[in-house]
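[Automated response] Your request has been received and processed.

Submitted sequence:
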Amino acid sequence: MKFTSLFRQKPISQLVPEEEIHDGGGLRRALGVRDLTFLGIAAVIGAGIFSTIGNAAYNGGPGVIFLFLITAVACGFTALCYAEFASRVPVSGSAYTYSYVTFGEMIAWIIGWALILEYAIGNIVVAISWSSYFNNILENIGINLPAWLSTGFQPAKIAYERAVASGDPTEGMAYLTAPAIGGAKFIVNLPAFLVVVLVTWLALIGIKESRNSANAMVWLKIIILVFVAVVGLGYIFSNHTTGNWSPFLPNGMTGVLRGVSAVFFAYIGFDAISTTAEECKNPQRDLPRAMIYSLVICTVIYVVTTLVITGMVNYKEFEGVTDPIAFVFEKLNMSGIGFVVSISAVVAATSVLLVFQLGQPRIWMIMSRDGLLPKKFASIHPKYKTPGFATIVTGLLVGIPVLFIDDVLMTDLTSIGTLFAFFLVSGGVLLLPKVEKEPGKFNLPYINGKWIVPVLVAVFIYGFWGRLTAAFANIGHEGYQELLFILFVVLALTMAVLTFLRNYSLIPILGVLSTAYLMIEIPAKSWMVFFGWMGVGLLIYFLYSYRNSHLAVAGRR
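Generated structure:
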């Protein structure tokens, strides 16, 4: 094995849609800029706004809106880089494909493997959240599923062990009341499994059906969130509860940044948009626009919603709250609105599931086309014109785990996978060959970062000088988190020097540095699991993908 062969690159000229290779065998082009924008909103406005922002608000107070703005800026740089790739490489595969033409095959495999983690684990988390909201709705209308049919085996077992330790048997009722089969307790999260089956079926039968379903769910979400904002702001100013916004930053920026995983978990719709490139009517024009439109719309929605809920109820009330919007209205004796919010949360989670179930099969499809996965993953359903086999496998990969497992660490893992993809896409733009601007295509504006990047890095180091010196002073006793911070500083200094010497473009450099910084704020224990997943992926690459790669086969001829 030659070391250089690990980084063999696929020429951009070889990246053509499947329909241009096999007449009639490609995907169905049915998506316009509005459809793509709605897919982005469908993926971003979901479990984050209805679930994880509660904990983020508890840690950061009303000032957690700054985290949304910081994340939006980081995503903005990355979205522009995605847009540049989308206009130059209008095929499915997203960050995997973009990495293949810039960093080479092994890095492309790594990012493809990370995206599998991102989409699969992300959908497991969302499906479990969906089940929780759905069960609440059923209870409100007088329908009570047995506890052993509405939770996974792992969380039920954990709750039972906690109940034994505390002496409170009610906490472990799912485990206690579950039937036994062959001496083993039968406990499954049936609602979560059924929604995965439904969404997988939608993703399988066609992009038009999926598009129409996603568009309808997005409209409903937006209408309800606008209603929440109007009612909430009316309550805040009529009852003079603006004092809840003070202090605005109760725990400083440190508290704000504690919510980075929860917030960034919500911002992964951009990658999902780019996976549908071969189903776009005009990908080189529409993909870039949709990414920017969805980013702006979603950021405004998140900021307004966060200000509303922290203005209605003090931020301290959100400790451990998993349904913050519904919680706020129920606490203020507006349970009717809370019930409507719960319904919208179910719709929101369903739309996220749909977009992710659309994204992952298309990444597997393009990896299979390159020979890195078996050919079956690239097969197109003759009737529905979707990647049929890959879609079904994706449904099983998500549907089976949701029956049994808990979602501990899952949000952090999804955020790492997403940030890692964003990091490589931003860096990859720097390696693209220069081309003449073409009318009708997106072109990333060039801003020379020669002086700007070194100045920004110097300002950052000055602002964090205390943390940096403390990290070096305790280098032998420091935790992993501070070691990650030191690595980031080394990366920032390296990028500053390279930008000064090579006149790199400012936007991709800012994308690299902002996503890298957000990554180091994710707990180190999640990184350990992530590296374990990467290790398994590299094992598969060297045992199968390296030898079966189309570039490898071509090189042996």
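Summary generated for your ticket: The radius of gyration is 24 Å. Strands lie at 180-181, 184-185.
If you did not submit this request, please reply to this message.
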